[in-house]
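Narrative of activities, Objective 1.

The group set out to show that a structural description can be obtained from nothing but a protein's sequence at a throughput compatible with the screening campaign. Below is one input-output pair from the validation batch, recorded exactly as produced.
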Amino acid sequence: MARKNLVPQKEAGKALAETQEPTHPFTVLRREMDKLMDDFFGGFDFRPFSTRPDAFLPQIDVVDTDKEIKVSVELPGMDDKDIEVSLTGETLTIKGEKREESEKKGKDYYRSERSYGSFTRTIPLPVEIDTEKVEAIFKKGVLAVNLPKTKQALGEAKRIAVKGE
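Output recorded for this entry:
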């Protein structure tokens, strides 16, 4: 059986030329600079450079157990008086403002630093919550909110048997 080249010769040469790396010095320099910038800035979170200078977003963990929903919020450097927790319908809202000021004087220097940041986090809740038993505890920079489910929400889940054939 005779072999037949499926790629015409003109096309084969063109395809080879397209896959070769460009050798123009400015093209190579640009590619290297792009790679350098990607490598350098790849691990940074650009959130501090947002359009809102007072942006502060604390980390939140939400755990849905059989009897309740547990929300944990990391708020280092804050006091309980700076935090507001509210429950409206099927939404939990956590607001706060972080203020930090430091002043240091030395023989040849004076340093004063201030930083401020406010946040609002809204968490949709998948079930009805017993609002009378909600509990919020702030301890060692961590806010823990326990949201017990209502008896109706607990009764809604129905286990369905799976039958094999």
